[in-house]
Amino acid sequence: MPNRSKKKSLNSLRIDRDGITKRRRSPRFNSRYLESALKKRRIEEAAEEELRELDPEIDCLVSDSSLDADGDGDFILKIPGRPGKPANTWNLVYGHRAVRRMNGLAVGFTVPCDEPGCPDRLIVLNGKGQEVPGITRKPLKPPVCHIVPWAALETELIQKESQAKKRLRDDFRKAVCWEPTNLQPGHAACNLRGVKTTAQTVTATEAKAARQVIAKVEQDYATKKQSIWAG
Q1: Residue ranges of the domains in the chain?
Q2: Of 102, 120, 103, which Cα lies nearest the Cα of 112?
Q3: Is the CB of residue 144 less than 8 Å from the CB of residue 180?
Q4: What are the residues whose beta carbons fall under 8 Å from the beta carbon of 197, sequence distance 6 or more?
Q5: What segment(s) does the record annotate as region Disordered (predicted)?
Q6: pLDDT beneath 50: ranges in the chain
Q7: Are 183 and 145 in contact (CB under 8 A)?
């Protein structure tokens, strides 16, 4: 019977990644550590499931302009394990927005939605950069959308660490996550409607694209003569 390899869950890959830095410690310590990590993760997953029932939009990356004085938006991090955004990310992605005028007066902005399958193709923003009309009762800035999903990027990063038996620097992982060429504007509804990729559903095309993003950031580090490895 042919061997059928199964993809590991992202949680299992994360545990393997943590094991890279724990390998010199005693098996007893590693056992306690893994049991504790698994128990914590089960609690987190139960809490996340409860939140999804209360708020169907929980997985939508949104922003709250009232929390960021520079108007870039404070993105609410909904995906476990994903690094926080660098400063000015929203302005970087939405910097090409065009002024919207009514009767000769500037009343806001417009910017194309680059999410696949968008029925409107144009995001309408008010003067504060908030989407109108939005999908939430409180006006919010539209999300920064990933072209290659974070799940695909993280899976490839963990595989890279596993092969090298080293741990990547946190700032390198963050740079990969928020590589500007992998970000695009999109309606909050389009972002929510998109298929959510997981470690088990990453396609070969997504994996290849993720490796290309990682290679680009790695080349940027090499140009600056910076190591991508911790320690």
Answers
A1: 63-144
A2: 120
A3: no
A4: 149, 151, 152, 206
A5: 1-27
A6: 21-27, 29, 48, 51-52, 54-77
A7: yes
